[in-house]
Amino acid sequence: MPERAPESPAGLFDLTGRVAIVTGASSGLGNRFARVLHQAGAHVVAVARRAERLAELAGKHERILAHPADVTDDTTIRRLVDATLARFGRIDVLVNNAGVGISAHALDEDLGDFRRTLEINLVSVFNLSRLVARPMLEAGKGSIINVASVYGLGSSWPIPNGAYTASKGGVIQLTRELACHWAKKGVRVNSIAPGFFPSEMTEEMRHNPKSVEYVVKRTPMRRWGEPHELDGALLFLASDASTYVTGQTLAVDGGWTAH
Asked: Is residue 2 part of a domain?
């Protein structure tokens, strides 16, 4: 059963004392997600391969703990979960944000690159989610947030990106599946499907006038998203504001998927 609702609506979004794991936290959206959860009161375990960037993040925020790890390495990820539980005794929120995207034509794409994309974007989400779900299920509550993409809800055409779209479509369906399995015991699983936001993955696009025009023309709001415009969706799904929401994909895309 959910905890009693706070007296103030603003209290719904309070994460004071809770523990969150954020993958892909060394840059871009993941870095911001870690900082936003921290600002909401949570202890945050920031995960990524680039240790120096994580150390810089943790050095600026008293409740952010750097934990360098490769999300595709099962042994390393098990150690991450064990270390988090050993330090805090609980895991309340998991944000599966780590991901890659390589544009390639299907007839020419290297099969190893395709498999690697699925390993990072989909298989690691499944593995870390089930590892974190165990203590969450024992506690009778928890929120898992998977970062998908609008390309998981439709084709990336005219950009050739089969591996990325397949992986993000898989994340969305995996979100539904795990949500239904764990809902009865209080563990919620949802996903956010961002449209186009500034990040390392979109760096090249943002410096290509044709790519910028492509995004603007196909987005009803006629602009790219700003990083802070994902904050509300993240806090909604991470907090008690969404205790009756599970298995859902929240598109934050300026209307991209509405047409």
From this structure: no
* Domain membership of residue 229 as a residue range: 14-252
pTM above 0.70, yes or no: yes
- Give the C-alpha separation, 54 to 22, whole Å: 11
The CA distance from 124 to 23, in Å, is 10
With both helix axes pointing from N to C terminus, report the angle between 28-39 and 51-59 in degrees, rounded to the nearest 10: 30
What's the rounded Cα separation, in Å, for the pair 199 and 152?
18
| Percent composition of the chain: helix, strand, coil (DSSP 3-state, to 5) | 50, 15, 35
Q: What tens digit of pLDDT does each residue of 91-148 get? A: 999 999 999 988 888 988 999 999 999 999 999 999 999 999 999 999 999 999 999 9
Does residue 164 have an active-site annotation?
yes
Q: Is residue 188 part of a domain?
A: yes
Total number of domains constituting the chain? 1
In a domain, 33, yes or no: yes
Q: Residues 151, 164, 214, 244: which is the catalytic one?
A: 164
